[in-house]
Amino acid sequence: MSAVPQQPAANDPDTLETQEWLDALEAVLDREGPERAHFLLGKLIEKARLSGAYIPFSANTPYLNTIPTHLEERSPGDFELEERIRSYCRWNAMVMVARANRNDDELGGHIASFASVANMFGIGQQHFWRAPHQGHGGDLVYFQGHSSPGIYARGLLEGRFTEAQLLKFRRDVDGGGVTSYPHPWLMPEYWQFPTVSMGLGPLQAIYMARFLKYLEARGLAQTANRKVWVFCGDGEMDEPESMGAIAMAAREKLDNLIFIVNCNLQRLDGPVRGNGKIIQELEGDFRGAGWNVIKLIWGSYWDPLLARDKDGILRRVMEETVDGEYQNYKANDGAYVRKHFFGKHPKLLEMVSRMSDEDIWRLNRGGHDPHKIYAAYAAATRHQGQPTVILAKTIKGFGLGKQGEAKNPTHQLKKVDLETIRHVRDRFNIPIPDERLEELPFYVPPPDAPEMKYLHERRRALGGYLPQRRAKADAVPQVPPLQAFEALLKGSGEGREISTTMAFVRILTALLRDKEIGNRVVPIVPDEARTFGMEGMFRQLGIYSSEGQKYEPVDRGQVMYYREDKAGQILEEGITEPGAMSSWIAAATAYSHSNLATVPFYIFYSMFGLQRVGDLAWAAADQRARGFLLGATAGRTTLNGEGLQHEDGHSHVLASVIPNCVSYDPTYGYELAVIIQDGLRRMVTNQEDVFYYITVMNEAYEHPALPAGVEKGILKGMYLLRESKSAAKPRVQLMGSGTILREVLAAAELLEADWGVAADVWSATSFTELRRDGLAAERWNLLHPEGAPRLPYVAQCLANRAGPVVAASDYIKAFADQIRAFMPSGRAYRVLGTDGFGRSDSRAKLRHFFEVSRHFVVLAALRALADQGERKAGDVARAIAQYGIDPAKPDPATV
Length: 895
Known about the structure:
Elements: H1 15-32, H2 34-50, H3 79-100, H4 112-128, E1 140-142, H5 148-158, H6 163-166, H7 200-217, E2 228-233, H8 240-243, H9 246-251, E3 257-263, H10 278-289, E4 292-296, H11 303-307, H12 313-320, H13 323-330, H14 334-340, H15 346-351, H16 357-362, H17 370-382, E5 388-393, H18 401-404, H19 418-427, H20 450-461, H21 486-489, E6 497-498, H22 500-513, E7 521-525, H23 536-541, E8 543-544, E9 564-565, E10 571-572, H24 577-588, H25 590-593, E11 599-605, H26 610-622, E12 628-632, H27 651-656, E13 661-664, H28 669-685, E14 691-695, E15 701-702, H29 711-716, E16 719-722, E17 731-736, H30 740-755, E18 758-763, H31 767-783, H32 793-798, E19 805-808, H33 813-816, E20 829-832, H34 843-849, H35 854-867, H36 873-882
Parallel strand pairs: 1-2, 2-3, 3-5, 4-5, 7-10, 7-11, 8-9, 11-12, 12-14, 13-14, 17-18, 17-19, 19-20
Antiparallel strand pairs: 6-15, 16-18
Helix pairs in contact: 1-2, 3-4, 3-5, 3-20, 4-5, 4-17, 7-24, 22-28, 24-26, 30-35, 35-36
């Protein structure tokens, strides 16, 4: 048998020899199969390279479908009924968005994205995506967020939504409607994953797939039969997060992961790669990273033309045509395609000479062909040892006619004209009469219609309906009591100094040893375990590795050697905060996606936490994550020696804007123990949808024992740590958090010894929680003018304590300034903080530079007293001189 003749290459000096090689290759393919052919080609390339020949690498294959026609698995479904279901979804999605925008509320919405992906969603829903049911935990589907109207439209057919609910699309305030995009916070029993901050869905999905493998390896859940499906836009792949972890997915052999990139060639403003080919570019990226790539470019109507392309001219033109041209073809008509595509070569015009313009226009793209979509999905689900990406070529706004199909503004199309409505009705055979078109009615067939019966039968066969979300785990482990951390509650002991980071490691160790909750704890570190004193856990718990440990570690002879294990408990993520955060999200939502409450503790350099992964933290909040984030080496003056890029003075301000993030800045081990134990009670026992951000420091000092009765104050945000025994007047109230509380304590002693001022000291464990309490009281009073007014907790604490209030922290002034409005009436409030860029030096020098040292606390207290006539301005001047403060020193926020 002769190989298919190829178009002679311009630089081929011996076409006969070339044909002989091709004939030999085809003989191997026919007699011994593609595996043998692949082996021989590899050997030839290896031999050439060893002989010194330069063979440039290419990860690209021809611009054709990866799966040949004769190897396509055929769908067992009823094509006609499935096409009706998809058509109704298209219509109802358009109706929902268009009717939401018939008034002047400017609600927005997107029609075109779902139009391009509708068939791919439909095939998944009818044949592949399993809901949670007995013996199966359910597949996880990250839906392309801008396509949410199509998901709601299907929900209408399934009876999960009413028309009234869809008519409240994007009207969230009064409830009873459907949200703009996938938002678990707003629809907690429906959406699982927020995906519209583009790039975050692909990144989170990769680590979710790996976390499912982790659960299986540790014997916590059976996840081997579950798949993670991820829909992305081709423009979305430009986000660094979209592809930043694809090498990890290949390295971990995540064959439970399937990406579908909807290559409609357009982003919001125009073409994704107008001068190139996004599918070829992505193929090179994914194949180079080690993925199984399935290209789904051409629909079935192209198959006869490709079969007749004996000399390869059609394939050559397909290769040479750029995406900007392909977009243009579908924005016009069949005559335009004949002239500008097939007209590129006389033989191509001859090839289609007997085809009408309508026939040419009918030539479809792979991402709209149900048969080829099914074949691609089937191949992806069977593939083992690699993650799979399906690169599906589609048309943005498919089916929307002249107003919306493949046009540059299509992404923003939300108001449709009557011509487009009629076009969609006719193209997809929607039984709506002409006289009703302007009212844009939904269409739902009667329950006994064949397509409706078929729709429900298919979902029953797959275990239920998707998307769906579990709001609470069926069972949770018992949380240890506060007494389990007795060693921390007793203090560090006289003369023994520890840091709050060390205190945290002791708490974590106690939890890991707990028989009830220990195996549910998921420690996560981004290559900083030794910095945080956690290396002892390497040997004890093992570092999770799908490969186990194929080598003997260099420190094998030491007690705390680096041990990797297939059943390891620690997730050591390497230098990737976004990756580690994505692992934390997977663990923090395991109660929902796997009906298993796990307790993740992710510890990181605080400066490289929320500042770097703020968007992921917001996504975690949206999907109701539960777990602990530990910002270690925190504080702008506490992490000395590192400098501007490392020293965190604002992470608590970033945490404060996330509504369900509970944040604390503790000073002592007992405070940390109280906070973590209560967090476990809230998140595990009570299954509250909150997560915690806690800062811990690397400065060592003596920790006192837990004072009696302060637990409530620790959790509320402040408690009286030291009451002055001095009877002197005047008096001041000093507040401090984190390590700066120790400067405040020292300042209290100076005020009493040097200036005769009595000073009470308050440990402010959370200015953010105090602010939230104050706002809640303020709101209550606003809305209940005739009721008994509520007093903010700050005001309750300070009401009977005389004197101005001075607060200091190792964070910018905005952190402590959050509670200014809730001071007792008429009370002066001064805030010290570390505004400005961090820098490297000793802690004492840094605290003087940023004006949060004990001397500046004294200065602020004296100034506040002078302002209200209880001290003279001269006292302030004498303090400046006595403590060696230069009044002309530069403002630290400006240098």
